[in-house]
Amino acid sequence: MTDTRHHRQRLLEEIGAVGQQRLRDASVAIVGVGGLGCPAALYLAAAGVGRIALYDDQRVELSNLNRQLLYGEADVGRTKVEAAAGRLRAIDSSLRLEVHVDTVRAVNVADVFHGVDLVVDGTDAFEAKFLLNDAAVLLRKPLVHGAVLQWGGQALTVLPGGPCLRCLFREPPEPDAVQSCEEAGIIGAATGVVGSVQAEEAVKVLLGIGEPLSGRIFQHDGLQGETRVTSFARDPQCAVCSSNASITDLSHYAQHVSARGHILP
Amino acid sequence: MLSAEQRQRYARHEALAEIGPHGQERLLRSSVLIVGVGALGSPVALYLAAAGVGTIGLADHDRVRLSNLQRQVIHSMDGLDMAKVEVAGRTVRRLNPDVTVEAIEATVDERNALQLLGRFDVIVDGTDTFRARYLLNDAAYLLRKPLVHGSIFRIEGQVTVFIPGRGCYRCLYPEPPPPGAIEDSEDVGVLAALPGIVGTIQAAETIKLITEAGDPLVNRVLLHDSMAMTFREVRYRRNRNCPLCGERPTIHELIDYGAFVGATP
User: Fold this and answer.
1) Which of A68, B210, B235, B262 is 20 to 30 A removed from A186 (C-alpha atoms)?
2) A143 vs A118, A136, A206, B233, CA distance in Å?
3) Is A263 in contact with A128 (CB distance < 8 Å)?
4) Inter-chain contact B190–A183, Cβ cutoff 8 Å?
5) Is A20 touching B (CB cutoff 8 A)?
6) What's the confidence (pLDDT) of residue B117?
């Protein structure tokens, strides 16, 4: 059965039978199974990534359903990771799915990375995104970053030895300085574009094919219909990935996370 | 007026200045026909359903096969061998009971196109043949309906919007490729997440057309290369000599599209 499931990917010279087997043997953690994590998980499962670990500590709410398309009305109140795993299993029951009713914190981020080949950032708080970035650099594991708000978003890939999120955005903004998705609003399809780009990046990095978004940032403004990919250089003073790094461990991150995903002192 | 439950479900849309409660009511009153419920139609239908488009027409003659599940994420194992429109309709209803699904298990062809397309506000092209693309283009123009075009080939994809009088698929591609120049889609590889990117942009463009938000992808085609990870925008204009939408049109009704593209019967 699995012979025909991924037939169209095997036909791609960039993937072939060998690449398909590599995907089967690969593992990805998706941290946050919301607007970004849902499409990323759907496409990674469909592509045949053999083991997927899902992290999210929230339950499905009605206001999620305008964009988090792994969930239906009957899932409201269930943990997101359980509901997501159910839907992914319905697509391919041979996938190995791990569910963690948990969010990422300084104390568990190393475990999240150690268990897998690559991490997809589907979180919705900047502190969590910087924590994942710093951990990816320090642990030398690939991370596909994504972020969305309103009609648009961005994605980039942090590869071992390559530039990172801090080369572009030095520090996370103050929690009060940015609007939450609740206040600002969001269009489901915008999360779908960025989440699908993250899945595409993950497949390319796992297989070592194509040009990933390393040292480049994908930016999408759905409202104006503008999409661009811009190169950026490593910041020679980058706090985490340069030779002058001041961040050499994760001890500056606190251990607790607020209900909105902010890491609390 | 939105119900209390709807206000919760669409809270993230209501927060957006470009949509708000008024735009949400327009979405709920609107009707969209998705022709082809495959790689592109899957994310389009999922995101339009999540957004609360009131009536979604799904047209496809095909049945779900195992090899579809690698990218056609609206379908699942328990829908194997069932009509795609039936399986997709079930997923849509599970996501959002506000949506009325019109499942049309048929090939859209010269005989039924005008009657079918005429019942909807916006047409989305999720097909994978040149015959269908020219047919939908001509039918949508003759009915003066906006058409959201998307297509993928191997590792590349494109999206654009045709608004009657402002250019059409024939202005962009006056002639189909010579018969045999493009392989049958069954024999061409495709990466899982690529149609996710193209299809979700098609969904966002559809939402923009219905709510009159932002700047639609009119007179510009967005081209994506998944391996190089580039996005390019190419501008085009209405061709004054276009046989369909030019100054002296010669096409006033649907033609024989099989003969036009040189398809073998």
Assistant:
1) B235
2) 6, 6, 11, 28
3) yes
4) no
5) no
6) 98
